[in-house]
Amino acid sequence: MEVWTLLEITAVLWVTYLVVTWWLERGRLSQLTDKTVLITGCDTGFGNLLAKRLDQLGLRVFAGCLTEAGVAELRQSCSERLQPIRMDVSSSDSVQDGFRVVKEAVGSKGLWGLVNNAGILGVAGGTMEWATKEDYQAVLNVNLLGMIDVTKTFLPLLKKSRGRVVNVASGAGRLAMPHGGPYTVSKYAVEAFSDSLRRAMRSFGVNVHIIEPGFFRTEINNQENALRRLDDIWQRQSPETKTEYGEEFLQAGKDAIIASDRVMQDPVAVVDAMEHALCATHPRSRYVIGWDVRFMFVPISWLPTELGDLAIRLVAPEMMPTPACCKSMQ
Known about the structure:
Keywords: Membrane, Oxidoreductase, Transmembrane, Transmembrane helix. It is a single chain. This protein is of the alpha/beta class. The chain has a domain at about 30-220 and about 265-300: NAD(P)-binding Rossmann-like Domain (Rossmann fold, 3-Layer(aba) Sandwich). The protein contains 13 helices and 7 strands. It has helices at about 1-25, 45-55, 70-75, 90-105, 135-145, 145-160, 180-200, 225-235, 240-245, 245-260, 270-280, 290-300, 305-315; strands at about 35-40, 60-65, 85, 115, 165-170, 205-215, 285-290. The protein has a 7-stranded parallel sheet with strand order 3-2-1-4-5-6-7, sandwiched between helices. β2, α3 (about 70-75) and β3 form a beta-alpha-beta unit. α2 (about 45-55) packs across α11, α4 runs parallel beside α6 and α8 runs antiparallel to α10. The mean pLDDT is about 90.
């Protein structure tokens, strides 16, 4: 009887927590037109969609774009409130140029929101062994070090307004796959940086929010580009490595890319989460978005290591093909 009573109390408390959380998360900030947000990586994908969404809501948006084409597209499709600026987050000089523009515009009001969205996939597919140190450096320069540089540069403006930082991590920052390579490593680091920053900035009234998307249909997940990158990294391998892994291993990687394209989700769900993190009175610290992350990546990450590895082999065997030289050992 005591066990059932404890379970009943736990269930009531959990349901109460969910109801209260749902109610609080419905609240929205007033006077959004007084707020200014900087978004990086607005050429395409989540950043582009979010910039347009916030512009429609009346916020003042600085949209960081890597290319002049991205700047031109946003100028044409958005109101005069939105100001696209050239920003390469991997270049400190470019980040400083963007900071001067934003600082002059916001003055003493400060910056309400910073969305660190810029990111690249880099080499992916195959296996960890195929990526070089330079491959890792290229991805880390954008996904991690660029994020850190932008955040540290704009923090003084965020402190003035007691604003919000929204960092785009990934489901790949919760569960590491052998084909994930530099991208997965960078997103694990983004999770650590964001958690540390959230705890450090609490006293200043600056909130930090983490976005964890799964597979969504954006340019970073373009199937044609992913297949080309896999071919490129395969051609870089030595004859010994190609023999060791075999053509079947390469083809399995291509099949996994093609299969993932069929389960890509609508990016609007991610933009909804970003908007909520910026515009809700009680935003979440972490947004887990997508059925794949919610029901596969996160639950598997909670398992003991050996059980987690087994679960991946059972749930997604196409993600862990066997090299040719190892088949005789099984």
